[in-house]
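Hi, here's the filled form for the chain we discussed.

Project: internal
Contact: R.S.
Residues: 632
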Amino acid sequence: MNDLISKLGDWNPQFFREIKGRLKVFNVALAIAISLFGQLALFLYQLRETPTEFYSTEGQYCFLRPEALEKRQLLNRQIENLYQQISQYTRTNPSGKSKITELQSQIDRLQQKVSELSNQYCPIDQLNMPIWWRDHWQYIFSTLTVVFIFTLLVAGTYLLIDNLATEERRGTLNFIRLSPQPATSILIGKMLGVPILVYLVILSALPFHFFAGRSANIATSHILSFWIVAIACCIFFYSAALLFGLYFRWFSGFQPWLGSGAVLLFLIITMQSLWSPYVTSAGIWIKFFSPFDITAYLFPNLMLHRYKWEMLQNVQFFYLPIGKNLVGLVSLHILNYGLGTYCLWQGLTRCFRNSNISLFSKGQSYFLVTYTQVLLWGFTFQYMKNYSQFCPPKGSCVSFYDVNYQMTQNFGLILVFNLVLFFGLLATLSPHRQTVQDWARYRHQNVSGEQDVRNHFWLADLVWGEKSPILVAALICLAIASAPVIIWLFLVPILNTPQTSTLNLWINQVNRLNLILGVAMFVTLMMIYAASVQRALLMKTKKRLLWAFGFVFALFFLPQFALTILRITPSIHPTFWLFSTFPWASLEFSSTLVIFVAWLGELVILGLLIWHLFEHIKILGESTTKALLVKD
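And the returned structure, exactly as it came back:
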């Protein structure tokens, strides 16, 4: 045992440190006891539903049920016929009360027979106990599955965030940062060690979970697939919890509750939305971060039986039918978790030693934007009969696939995702006053010669440098996100389905030019936001973040709000809407010349902002000694 402990300490000292304080005899015994007690309580709770001699003949586990239901249906039809006769006699012969009374007495006798039929019990030898035991184990298996998911993700994320917050308050986190161990080793040790008691509770229930699944005639491959996806899901959410605990420290003691509450809300929302037809949406990959979809697909006969798991088989990625088999769907979930975890660990390794550094480097932001576009457009390209042009009055509609219609249906969602991503990167990558001042003042020390300084400034630092202003990096990110849209607009006539006659807006050459100009205007507007944010972060005030947020809020929402209040509609006054956040609303009603002039106006505004920004940076870069000499 000492040998094992020594090897464990050598392999990962942080993991050994975490489990040394948690794997006490009482804690281990309590975790195992809670797990065993929960399993026993679940088994007994389901066992109370065992059919007895008082089980109704109409119950689903009685062999006599078909006959009983047939008798009930026959009696109900007779009762309905008698009521119709009473209604007919009331209309034709209101004075014939004797006949109505006779019919009512017959109805009473039939209703008494229905009541007696409901009180009949199924003989013991007519109970289908094998099916009952199968369903019994299905209920146990499904309950354990849902409990596993919520316990691992919610409790695990809470413990990890709380551990980092506690280490931060005690000041021990800085000592850990000074450790010679790699950041990955330390963070893996925390991920494995902090929720060790949660792991113990789940591991104690795994044999019972597997036994319940096999007793419910669930394939071993499906059970193992669920376990594999659950492990990948835990790694992703635990990585997100560590990053949240390291980077977002201003929530103080509320931080663990906020992080675990967000995970709980995400799980509840995705669990409740299992039955929505979302498979052709560009944002379906967000749903793949939840384990409930693959759980419902693996175990369609359990408590999630209302989920139309067949729809998941229609999922495609760039027209590849990845949802056709189990291997494809499991691989898709694992790949989604793996790439998401990789992105999170890029931020983790950066923020662990220095929590004041940006979450991603500029190079990593380019990869993140490219990766997001591949996902969004990959799940947009899914073949299905999505467009109906002709529907006969007494026949089925004539439907066919139209790629342009598919993309127009997903364009709004793609825009929202890209806006959230852009503003997130803007908040993360934009350097503050002191950082930009150091960059402007000392950047020339790493190069020699005036020409090298200029080249270094324009070609390297603004693209890759972490201390340089955000403008060039923001433009590159916008270019990456806009490139698929521009390519699509150029290919619209080629992609047009011959039968389509309602997409003239996308086929007409002038309108396509208007749309391309609209994309250019939107990119320019986003660059104005980026320049405004960067200028706000160079202010001397300590509340520069609030100023940056205020600038973005005012520029993003106030134009739409003012136009709505003044009742200026795009169809009547399209020029005003060209300067709003979403100029596409007025592109249909504006000429190409007006749109081009509006875009030039925005370019002038952007140029003035950039000129003012770099003049201010030049002033910041002047040394204090030079400023004093000039003053003297």
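Let me know if anything looks off before we file it.
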